Amino acid sequence: MRRRRAVVTGGAGFLGSHLCERLLQEGYEVVCLDDFCTGTSANVEHLLEDSRFRLVRADVTDYIHVSGHVDAVLHLASPASPIDYLQLPLQTLKVGSIGTLHSLGLAKDKRARFLLASTSESYGDPLVHPQPETYWGNVNPVGPRGVYDEAKRFAEATTMAYSSACGVDTTIARIFNTFGPRMRPRDGRAIPTFIGQALRGEPLTVAGDGSQTRSVCYVDDLIEGLVRLLRSDTAGPVNIGNCGEMSVLQLARLIIDLTGSSSDISFVERPQDDPTVRRPDITLARTILGWEPVVDVREGLRRTIEWFRSESVGVEPVFVP
Ligand code: NAD
């Protein structure tokens, strides 16, 4: 029998590497395309021994060529943390636009199912809370986060157009904040930043007064949601995230507690357009995918802290010249 084959763009990143792993477990052959601008081959090194896994250095904003059959294209390539997309604004816009067009073109040529990794940032700083998929969002297109938010909104529109105009079998996941092993300690996202600071005994830098909320999902739950979405015949968009909302200050205190650190908390300036609240309405995912998160946030944080410790990730002191 012909083996199913998946192409994962951005497969050497945090989420992409977990997804490649899971697709191999599901029996897929996996072609991972990555230009390593924010990811690293170290994230998928352990998969290279598997003859069903291929890692290809490729910038998906250039031409994408994959020979042979392809059953699924999962488009995750994009800088994803605020630090990354502020440092790579044009690459972010290009991968969300040209990279998405190329990935959809591949799905069209191969008659493959296409999954777009979109984001809760499509809702911007939301005026509706929690956010259902029917909410159109509140995005500042000319603010510092606009490059990411608008690139993803363009990617969603392009995905819908390939479905309606070209008959490509597409789906869109709106992913909410996810955490777990293989996050980069200095990618600027709250959880790896706080864990690194707590392990080094430095103050945890909470933005503003820390009352802004986030809903954080453990990576295994997120990947389960993506795989169910891929298997379904739903076009989406579908929110995939955890509804357990907590303030950033609560999150910082929880990490101090779980690491047993003696760190204090220091309050720093809040970035422009930082969302005030963020919580997915996952009614749709529950109903059509039978999916909801099962890993408790404390347990997910314990596993992530354990990984940071075992890899000595983020433990080394920051070098200040
Ligand atoms: P990541 O930075 O760890 O992974 C992104 C990967 O894409 C990296 O390996 C990077 O090298 C690769 N990449 C970027 N531009 C590329 C290009 N032009 N060609 C080929 N590869 C390219 O980020 P992540 O957290 O794993 O996010 C993965 C996807 O999920 C992104 O599309 C992101 O927008 C989306 N997402 C993530 C989260 C989250 O909480 N992690 C939340 C919402 C959405």
Radius of gyration, Cα only, in angstroms?
19 Å
Mean pLDDT: 93
Give the N-to-C terminal Cα separation: 59 Å
Tell me, briefly, the overall form.
Answer: globular
Per DSSP, what share of the residues sits in E-state strands of 2 or more residues? 15-25%
Number of alpha- plus pi-helical segments: 9
Bound molecules: nicotinamide-adenine-dinucleotide
> Helix proportion of residues, in percent?
25-40%
How many strands?
Answer: 13
**From the helix content, strand content and strand pairing, which structural class follows?**
alpha/beta
Major β-sheet profile = 7 strands, parallel
Helix-strand pattern: EHEEEHHEHEEHEEEHEEHEHH
Poorly predicted segments? 317-321
Query: How are the strands ordered across the major sheet?
Result: 3-2-1-4-5-6-11
Domain NAD-dependent epimerase/dehydratase: 7-241
Organism: Actinomycetospora chlora
Cofactor: NAD(+)
Protein name: GDP-mannose 4,6-dehydratase
